[in-house]
Amino acid sequence: MDVRERIRINGLDISKDKFLYYFWDCWNLLKERVDEDLPMPPLFQFLTVLAFKIFVSEKVDVAIIEVGLGGRLDSTNVVKEPVVCGITSLGMDHMEILGDTIGQIASAKAGIFKPHVPAFTVPQLPEAMLALEERASELMIPLTFARPLDPSVMSGLTLGLAGDHQLINAGLAVALCTSWLQRTGHAELTPNDNPEEGLPEGFLRGLSTARLGGRAQTIIDRPKMLEQIPDGNSGDLIFYLDGAHSPESMEVCARWFSSAVGEAQQSVKNGFVKELGYSHLYENKHSSESKKASKKILLFNCMEKRDPQLLLPPLVDICASNGVHFSKALFVPSMSVYHRVDSGSSIVAPNAPANLSWQSTLQRTWDKLIKEKDLVNDNGSKMQKLGKTHEDVTGEPLEKCVPVLKDLSPSAVVPSLPLAIRWLRDYAKDNPSLHLQVKTLHSKIFKSD
């Protein structure tokens, strides 16, 4: 939602005031040195320079730097002698730059390995692991396999980040932190060799409180304007936010969503509604919650360089194998006129009609996939072919979009994200007997100003 999410200190986004101060300081210094042979860096490189400037100026004790594309070709890979390096799960991504095989991609990612610096990785495909081992051997450095975290060492706590795949990431995080502590003279703070003793308090605090907005995040939708509704009968709308831009990460998203919607609805409410201050709206509805039917809706967008024929099948297949079927898929442009997604008053019509040709391509891919899979709706009826196209809703008021959205077709293209969310809220309000569970997936975060 905000560019400041890229630069965090002590787990918090840097403040707006500090960000602006460092931004213009960095910008002006670079601008003074621009000439024909040395232009201003593009966005990603500029943000990298800005991050380093902030970390140095704020005198951080340790910086955790995540490279972008990764490895030898990445502008972030400028630290010549890091304390420790780690490589997470690799997949078929950025193939136009890194290579079209998992081995080539792994070789490029291994570019972060440095002489005399220990390296860690997680379970990888055999070809990827072989490439990582070859590069480590060339540099004569140890490459250690970090096992997924065993939940039993969490002393009854749970990871702050949802999804079984986070156990893999947590295992790598523990290995990297342990190595850093050992190499910087803080061995007394590291975990004991005996796993039955669990993790030190500092590790437990970090693992249980880690948060990353928009990644396997569940939000019960309660716009501020609904606080005034006396009986709280405003519908039941839950967003399951996540992002994926490779088939492997899409599989992870699908598994998490299937698991999340399979949990008891009341446990979800207990975990999130009280946090948002809306538990009073459910006090008179507790007995009827378990009787509600559920409807799953996909809200989707990906960048044009992504291939929907690779991304969408894993989502459909894994969800279907877990008994989770989408009643409808909504395809929206990535640009949003929301300033915050939790604001109920930020719905502003775009000044000009959006170009929805790419969303129509996504829709056709989805419809073909649904037809081939011969999938069924939540109510057991077969998915019907789409009868209307995006021309029926492009540039029209919401009221004219609703008939397209309410029919039994498996998909629709909506001109903007705010219109889609408004329709979802209205639909939930008009159907209080439903749990409306919206899986929101993107391969590029919806942008804000």
What is this structure, in a nutshell?
This protein is α/β, with parallel strands linked by helices and 449 residues long. It has helices spanning 16-32, 43-57, 95-98, 102-109, 126-139, 166-183, 201-209, 247-262, 265-276, 286-289, 308-321, 357-373, 398-406, 417-430; strands at 8-9, 12-13, 85-87, 119-121, 143-145, 217-220, 237-243, 293-301, 326-331, 411-413, 434-442.
Q: What does this 3D model show about the protein?
A:
There is one protein chain. The protein is α/β, with parallel strands linked by helices. Among the domains are: 1-63; 217-442, no CATH class. The chain has helices spanning 16-32, 43-57, 95-98, 102-109, 126-139, 166-183, 201-209, 247-262, 265-276, 286-289, 308-321, 357-373, 398-406, 417-430; strands at residues 8-9, 12-13, 85-87, 119-121, 143-145, 217-220, 237-243, 293-301, 326-331, 411-413, 434-442. The strands form 3 sheets. The protein has a 6-stranded mixed beta sheet, sandwiched between helices. A hairpin with a 2-residue loop joins strand 1 and strand 2 (12-13).
